[in-house]
Amino acid sequence: MISLIDYLLERRTPLRYLFYVLVFAIVVWSLTVDTSHAHTWLERTVPGFWSLFGLGACIVLIFAARWLSGAGIAREEDYYDN
Amino acid sequence: MTTSGFFHPALMLIIGALVLPLIKEPFRRPFLVLIPVLTFINVVWLGFHQGTYGILHFLDWQLTFGRIDSLSNAFAFIMALMAIIGTIYGLHVRDVWQQVAAWFYVAGSLGAIYSGDYLSLFLFWEMMAFASTFLIWSNREDPDAPAAGFRYLLVHTFGGLLLLMGFVLNYQATGSIAFELLDYDNARLSTWLIMGGLMLNAAVIPLHSWLPDAYSKASITGSVFMCAFTTKTAIYTLARACAGFDILIVLGVIMAIAGIIYALLENDIRRLLGWEIISQVGYMVAGVGIGTALAINGTTAHAFAHILYKGLLFMGAGAVIQATGRQRFTELGGLYKKMPLTLLFVIIGGVSVSAFPLFSGFVSKSMIIAASYEEHLLWTGFLLTMVSAGTFLVAGLRLPWLVFFGNYRGDTASFAKAADPPWNMQLAMLVAALLCFIIGAWYPLLYGLLPHQDIIGDYHPYSSYHLSETLQILALTGVAFLLLKERIGARAATYLDLDWFYRRGGQLVLWLARNPIQWFDTAWGEAYRAVGLFSLMTTARFWSWFDWHAIDGLLDGSACGVRSFGRLLARVLQRGQIQQTLGYTVSFVALLLFVYIWL
Prior knowledge:
The complex is a heterodimer. By secondary structure, chain A is an all-alpha fold. Chain A has one domain. Chain A contains 4 helices and 1 strand, in the order ααααβ. By secondary structure, chain B is mostly helical. Chain B has 3 domains: 223 residues, no CATH class; 252 residues, no CATH class; 90 residues, no CATH class. In chain B, 53% of the residues are buried. Chains A and B meet through helix 1, helix 2, helix 4 and strand 1 of A and helix 10, helix 13, helix 15, helix 19 and strand 3 of B. Strand 1 of chain A pairs antiparallel with strand 3 of chain B, so a sheet runs across the interface.
């Protein structure tokens, strides 16, 4: 298993492209899925709604976390030690 | 309590825990496996014979130790299963008191789940709190563990007091101690107190700070047990008492979001997992708040799935900590070369919590989200879905990346000695991993256990729309991770939380006590000694001599006898170690309870 991971890590650039192809395939496939059972109007009207939502969610969460840690909740590691 | 064939599963574990210290190798390990397995069989048997058992009349009250219905059965089933997995994981541990504490802890959880009245619920609730404190204290590697244990105990004592006040007021108002659904429309002070006490154990914000603090300080096996029982038992009690309380929807969503944001920042592997528990329990709290049949089914299913994958992740984290002695991301990395099997298990745990199709989170989490859309709580559905993306980011990507890939950031000695853990730890992880997959792939197995069987047929997790929704979110989360991963890398820092108030506040009280108050006390003591004490002591010494020698000697010397026995007792039982004293007290209470129930 270690050699398999090493093998894959040595080819990380082609792997990354393969991943992007996969993502593209998922998004294209999702456009063909019947949305009549969707929860909301938004999902029915915006094509690839959940892709945009997923990307947006991650960006919002990461930047919220960065902002909070910059806003003063981050302290040195031994903050509570006497 | 043995009437009509009912033998309380918690009692089995308590007896097992009391006998365990007397059992030596080679019988110890078989015994360690046997007791949880028997308990599990007992729970399964009770599941097929649901009803009310173990009714006991105590003073004016009726205590119910065995309310077994579809809701309590589902929770007891997974707790008993996790007790087997956790015990196998800790089979190599020589410190028998850890195993004793763990079994008492599970017994408390099973007892609380089966109890049908507030009094027995409270007893088992406190048993859980005390026993789990010992799982923190048993961590001898971390010098901060004793302090963390005290913080944990104090917070839970506070929660227990809230609960007790609520019970008493509730009894005063209704004259009943039956543990039933509370009346939300006519909520009284007692309703909020009970809800607050239950919420503290479910780590509902703002009563949550104890969780990452305690779980990152407990012993390795201790944290595997703790991650399963306290919060999910509390979810069960909330589902029982507070279903449909819509304030819980708001609190649950806040938990889900705040938990994942802190987990994106944390530098400690078990604090990250602790924050993620808060986030995942947020889904369940929201589910309880929604309170419909589908939502309660979803909450139960998610608690079930969550115990398995979170146990798996904590077991993986424990394996890493045991192998390297490090638990900060700034001192880990690149471990796939040394611990490939642990990596595999952590990834299975990660994809399960991230709700990958074919894994357990996919069939459980979505039910709560579907219930929120069904009730037209659109913002709840969208925000919880946003947190799903964050969950994959944290547990599926950030955690394995920081621990197993990149360069090792610690010292070379700890990297050199790192290896996959012993067979029993691997076996426990394998069982948990297989169950995560089985539940996700053959979901009717899990759905068959859920409390509201009448609506089970209406919900299908593997619809093509749900698949496309999940795959899109997961795929784009992967893209976001590739683009932004450096922003959530390892960074040496502590992140402030609400425990600041009692940790820093505690330090302030300590400073006050050490400086001004101590000075005043010393000055007062000096003045008293100089002025009043001398004359008082001289007179007292004379009368003491007279009493001791003249009167006691004249009678039968009993005072001398009592004193020497008291000294012996103090030498054996009161060694000034609060841990030991507490241990004796809890065991004694458990024994008394056992004797009382038995006779």
